[in-house]
Amino acid sequence: MNNDVMSLLAGVIDFFSQPMNWQGPGSILAHITEHITYVVIATLIGAAIALPVGIGLGHSGRGGLLAINISNIGRAIPSFGVIILVFLLAGFGVMPVIVALVALAIPPMVTNSFVGMREVDPAVRQAAVALGMTGWQRLWQVELPIAMPLIMAGVRTSAVQVMSTATLAAYVGLGGLGRYLIDGLAVRDLAQVLVGAILVAVLAMATELLFAGLQKLITAKGLQ
Amino acid sequence: MNWGWVASNTHQITAALLQHVQLVGLALLFGFLIAFPLALLAVRWPRLYGPSLAVTGVMFTIPSLALFILLMPFTGLSMATSLIGLTIYTLLILFRNIVQGLRGVSPSVREAARALGYTPARRLFTVELPIALPVIVAGIRIAAVTIIGMVTVTALIGQGGLGQLFITGFTLSFATPLVIGFVLSVMLAVAVDLALVGIQYWLTPWQRGVR
pTM above the 0.95 mark? Predict the structure, then answer.
């Protein structure tokens, strides 16, 4: 048992130290690039759909319960099923993966941006009205800056989930770090699986840190 | 949709659904049994909370597929493999919510219970837990819905409940089993979620007027 673990770790170190694994197509860097590409595209499309919906509903205060419920049901959608289903309908390509990841990314962003907008103190809202600010001005200059930490927390949750789920892309023949998991599983090469797991976990943690920093950066000084 | 396939494979579909329910139920049960004492410790000794949250946070970034595969040398293609993996993911969500729920109990309530001569155990079960219940149930709901989707991934290591239907659909290039598995999985999640809301409503009669 101890020997197994040792040889597994040796296998991982060996994998990382082979120059062959660092060059050309199918190299570690190429897989990382593919992986990040899926994640960035899916998170951006997801944000472009989810944030206006969540922010708009939170701003107007209408239809909120409906939005939250739909987005909760959205969490129940199995990404693995979406990938295969869209693959059967649309054929080989990036499309199935992007659709599944966008569906995964939307719910946390809708919920968080809605809650963030709703949690703006009513007194602050009224003060803005009393100052004669228009609806747009209140949205951009008062409510959004206050809601920003929660909105960003939603984007962060989505991005991290998308990062680890993007591994499923490999099942329908695409690249990304899931290749190490699916290929390693196929030939029972656990060292390769562990390599993939480590790389995805590191990327996910880097995403967390990146967003934590970003959140600090764009939160208004007075609110920190 | 090919309803003929559905009619002739009812047995397979029911078996997949049952396994799905079983995996989710057991994972939630084990997750709760482990997370609850851990959360009590973390509330009692706040110093434990930060490190345990960091550890669980890091574990959450491991892709579920990788975790399932890496458990295989220890537990093989058995149900235990997917059960252990799923339990780990419920742990992370449950632990956080139980701690937050218990911490949300106002100190004055806690002191009042102490002044009335409640023993710590009685205080926990008759005062603190009921107050923390909504937050705890919220955690169970998130955990349940999350792992109902995650179970399907374990089809890649020979388990998977309704995920088996996804694999069947993929290998046969045939959408019907996929759609069935998909719809049943989403319906299961919604049903479990509603059931948990109902249980919370039933267990917290004092909250009914508030909303």
Answer: no
